[in-house]
Amino acid sequence: MNAQPLDHAIEDKVQALLSQMTLEEKVGQMTQIDVSVVTVPNGQDVDQPFDMSKLEDALFNHHVGSILNAPSTPNNRAQPIEKWRSMTQTIRSMAEKSRLKIPVIYGVDAIHGATYTDQSVLFPQAINMAATFNRDLSFKEGEIAAREVKASGIDWNFSPVMDIGRQPLWPRLWETYGEDVHLASSLGSAFIQGHQGDDASAADKAPTCLKHYVGYSFPINGKDRTPAWIGERMLREYFLPSFEAGIKAGAPTIMVNSAEVDGIPGHANYQYLTTILRGELGFTGFTVSDWEDIIRLYTRDKLAASPREAVKIAVMAGVDMSMVPFNFSFYDLLLDLARSGEVPVSRIDEAVTRILRVKYQTGLFQRTEPDIAVAGHFATKEAVAINRQAAQESIVLAKNDQHLLPLSKKASILVTGPTANLLSVMNGGWTLTWQGDNEQLYPKDKLTLFKAIQQKTSGKVTYVGGNSYQEEINIEQAVNEARKHDVVVLALGENTYTETSGNIETLNLPFPQLQLAKAIFATGKPVVLVTFGGRPRIITEIAEQANAVVLGFLPGMEGGVAMADILFGDVNPSAKLPISYPRNTNDIVLYDHKPIESYETNQYKPLYPFGHGLSYTQFETTGLRLSHEQIKLGEGIEVSVEVKNTGKITGKEAVLVYLNDVAASVTRPSKQLKAYAKVELKAGETQTLSFELPAEAMSFIGVDMKRRIEPGEFKVMVGNQTVSFTVN
Ligand code: BGC
């Protein structure tokens, strides 16, 4: 086990402080409240949202360790940056006046940038970042998110989501880096490194929080916060490694799975939270509960017989901080449990040690005001340009018959469909509000797809559609206009949603969208299908009839311009799918399926496979070779390959290296991604790429639930080439 390193100077300070703390102060450290507990109602509408007596009560009488969210639930929304700075300053100054001057750690869900700060740079969501296959962009997103969070005076980011997205119905799929373990581990780690740097106490760096440990993303019925049934091997093969990678990358906090696995709620799971997280993964930071989830062990899960028992179960399982968030019940109950000895003070000391450790590591004790200025650190031109590049590299060209794309800038275009003229549908949740659905709040200078197309062309561009997802499109008008234009851009997909509000019964598209598509196809005009949304909604029949298909997912604030950049060929698309795009609603076979899933009549036959993505140029990979034909057990191997741009224009190509263990004592996936790199090549240019596959790449969880490598043959696949080696 590689434990996260400890700094002795910090450990000494933590112990010195802990020894001065009363039980009340300790239990307070473990308490996190929503900011609405200490604000006036509708605090979002006033300059100074605090109810000072409530804030004093929280800090001086309840000693709270943490506050979250934007003012004020349930109407919380993005706030001006100066307001954030003064709000967090008010808290900081008040904490300075508390007996031990312990700073409060303020957290928000800055999941694609500083969600709740007006004008922040909001990136493509994680599913899109995954489609970039570009670690450098993920690193930069982390840098920018941290900087803008810190410029807002905020301390802590509840991001990245390290859950693996293997259930396409799940309404949080878009918050994940997709279905592959290696890709998610690698991009999530890059994000963390950008966000925290080498020194998480630096002025422009901030701590991350891995979510939602563990198994949350795999609800059997696809609905958010419903049970997963994950056997130990599956847990260790698919769901733990990304968290392990995040811990290695230095994430100091982890949020707990809000649902349950194998009948045990995340917040009651001692084996996951303590035996594995601490004992095996060496995590030294603190865990925070998810929203209200401790009390839910009583109210929802019926695991505890009372709220008091719920607190005991969660704390004893290994939850260090409770996102209560609306009252001090956790504080009162835990205090009582500690006084009666039902929760040993040693367990409380352990939790508080971890919380204080992170507060020291991240420089909170030195911070007397926001660490950095707004100017030069917030919404800079450079950050917007990187955001645009990320959006461009995250949009997947899935089909392009007869080279309909790129479109001529002189073409006359009808733009229609429910996602054509809204910014919210390209941003998704946690954009300015929790649900991201308040279109009025979106910045006026950002362009929807329709407006971006209009701005780029000299041809006639017409838009037909209700301006909201719910409103039905006037199909007759759309058809009439289609007849008068050269080409139709048909923008379908989803509205925005976050968490349980995004639960659906089917992946099929809503009926009005299907009707619109059918009517447009009947005109015989060439159609470019564009989709936006957080999940792969079924588009099979529409995609068959469309001449081109471009999958936008949630490309963020620059999504409209980035999509137009691709449609008109100002940018050559380079994204690849980080998920298998299903052909049918129940066609949930993932790319790294077991042999039995593609045996006899079974098939892996998605509409578009994992890794699919076209370009306006062509690439060829040749000369795949290995450093050795045979290696010893425990050794790594080097893979080399040449990639050539055989087309006529410059393009970027993500080269994906897959491995297959030919025979093993536990069935192995037909192939698994083990390495990747993205390169830019001019027309005719060739580059040789080398990849190190470490021994762990050949490992799996054996019959005894331990990671092992077995001798025998392995295949390495890149493009349509395959080579083999043996492990002796
Ligand atoms: C979500 C978390 C989020 C938390 C705080 C919860 O409902 O599940 O992902 O970090 O709220 O906003």
Structural class by helix and strand composition: alpha/beta
Q: How many distinct helices?
A: 20
On the 0 to 100 scale, the average pLDDT is 97
Distance separating the two termini: 26 Å
Which value, in Å, is the CA radius of gyration?
Answer: 26 Å
Helix amount = 25-40%
Main beta sheet: 6 strands, mixed
Q: What is the fold named in CATH at topology level of the largest domain? A: TIM Barrel
Shape label: globular
Per CATH, the class of the largest domain reads Alpha Beta
Low-confidence stretches: none
- Name the ligand types: beta-D-glucopyranose
Beta-strand fraction estimate: 15-25%
The number of distinct structural domains comes to: 3
**CATH fourth-tier homologous superfamily of the largest domain:** Glycoside hydrolase, family 3, N-terminal domain
Give the strand order, joined by hyphens, for the main sheet: 11-16-15-14-12-13
In short:
The protein is an alpha/beta fold. It contains 20 helices and 26 strands.
Structural descriptors:
728 residues, alpha/beta, Rossmann fold, Immunoglobulin-like, 3 domains, six-stranded mixed sheet, five-stranded parallel sheet, 26 strands, 17% strand
Molecular structure report:
With 728 residues, the chain is of the alpha/beta class. The chain has 3 domains: 8-14 and 32-366, TIM Barrel (Alpha-Beta Barrel), CATH 3.20.20; 395-598, 3-Layer(aba) Sandwich (Rossmann fold), CATH 3.40.50; 619-727, Immunoglobulin-like. The protein contains 20 helices and 26 strands. It has a 6-stranded mixed beta sheet, sandwiched between helices. The protein has a 5-stranded parallel beta sheet with strand order 4-3-2-1-10. A 5-stranded mixed beta sheet has the order 18-26-25-20-21. Strand 15 (527-532), helix 19 (540-545) and strand 16 form a beta-alpha-beta unit. The radius of gyration is 26 Å and the shape is globular. It starts with 7 loop residues before the first helix and ends with a strand. 56% of the residues are buried. The mean pLDDT is 97. Bound molecules: beta-D-glucopyranose (BGC). The site of beta-D-glucopyranose has 8 residues, from loops.
